[in-house]
Amino acid sequence: MRTTVGIIGAGPAGLLLARLLSDAGIDSVVLESRDRPYVEQRQRAGILEQGTIDVLRAAGAGERMDREGLRHDGIELRYDRTRHRVDFPALTGGRSVMVYAQTEVCKDLIALQLKDGAPLLFEAEALAVEDADTDRPRVRFRHEGREDVLECDYVVGCDGFWGVARKAIPASVSRTFERTYPFGWLGILADVPPSHDELVYARHDRGFALLSMRSPSVSRLYLQVPEGTDAEEWSDDEIWAELERRFETDDDWRLERGPITQKSVTPMRSYVHEPMRHGRLFLAGDAAHIVPPTGAKGLNLAVGDVVTFARALTDQRETGSSELLDAYSATCLRRVWQAERFSYDMTTLLHRAPDATPFEDRLQLARLARIASSRAAETELAEAYTGFPVD
Ligand code: APR
Ligand code: PHB
């Protein structure tokens, strides 16, 4: 098999990249190790920045998003039994975000790709990227019980944190930056209307909690739990009781309970691999970087990477100059580190470390009080949450 751009992974990064390339008249092949139902059912985050919304619309994948997505003009910070709303449009000159689940974005992109896009192969596992530093990089893969080779002009590793693409970059040129956290998130989906019409980020002495949603009738909620927690250790009643405690306020706000349809634990990590390019191999999305979910940046960063790559390759084809392709890693990393900083700040602002001291507790409360009382501090949060520009 031969193509211009070999794409490994059909998460949001790989699927959107295939779409952007076909719009630019550049052919590609997507290899995805899992089957279609698995990719379409995997529960992930759900906040789209304005830039992401614009890109999905321009790629022809915005129709259902515009119908079913929920526009959000703010979030609530909850601490010390009080509530503070951050008004995004007022602080950022009109920017807002949209709640539309990543799984739905993937479903929409898969449907488009299978209808009139380049080949998208499910149950096709990339085994290795070879000859990345030559003009003819190759992906060795297994599909329908056979080993095959995809010969490419470029390979883009969109294969997530556990993928194989990153391993093709020699250790001598790689640098990694990592931080793990001694806690994770226990996430639930529940068949109950969300108890608030915007997301609630709660800081509590017992740990962080987040109220989010998937639709007007489905709630998505998270609890900070110790690292290594098994979701089955928590009964449904225990989960609701703990959420109630962490969201408790001095006013008459109440958390509605409902049947829990899904629960799982997500570990928390910050990770960056530099550079994001080696020869003709490019890394995009979780293959190159991970952020803890507190800032809702993972999906939006993946979109930024593939937009940068598609523009750079299009420019190279039109002008003959490889300047933008050569700048790919540096361009993406500037944005990535801003998202790493914000995600880290949000995480340390709102979570309680197991060894937190009373001094650190007071500092967290002081940081929150500062956001609630200073327009400058609040604007900084609103600008970062609603998104950094793609370039
Ligand atoms: N061969 C083929 N496909 C692979 C391989 C492989 N060897 N290894 C992994 N994959 C596939 C996975 O099955 C997955 O579908 O690559 C895809 C990677 O997708 P994601 O993990 O969703 O990563 P990405 O597209 O970068 O999206 C980032 O996902 O994890 C969230 O919070 C993160 O929202 C962010 C987004
Ligand atoms: C979600 O809805 O899954 C979600 C929302 C906001 C976050 C993380 C996850 O910061």
UniProtKB/TrEMBL annotation:
Top-rank lineage group of the source organism: Bacteria
Every FAD-binding domain range: 2-343
Pfam family membership, one: FAD_binding_3
Gene Ontology terms, MF aspect: FAD binding; oxidoreductase activity, acting on paired donors, with incorporation or reduction of molecular oxygen, NAD(P)H as one donor, and incorporation of one atom of oxygen
Gene3D superfamilies cross-referenced by the UniProt entry: D-Amino Acid Oxidase, subunit A, domain 2, FAD/NAD(P)-binding domain
Keywords: FAD, Flavoprotein, Monooxygenase, Oxidoreductase
UniProt name for this protein: 4-hydroxybenzoate 3-monooxygenase
Organism the protein comes from: Streptomyces cupreus
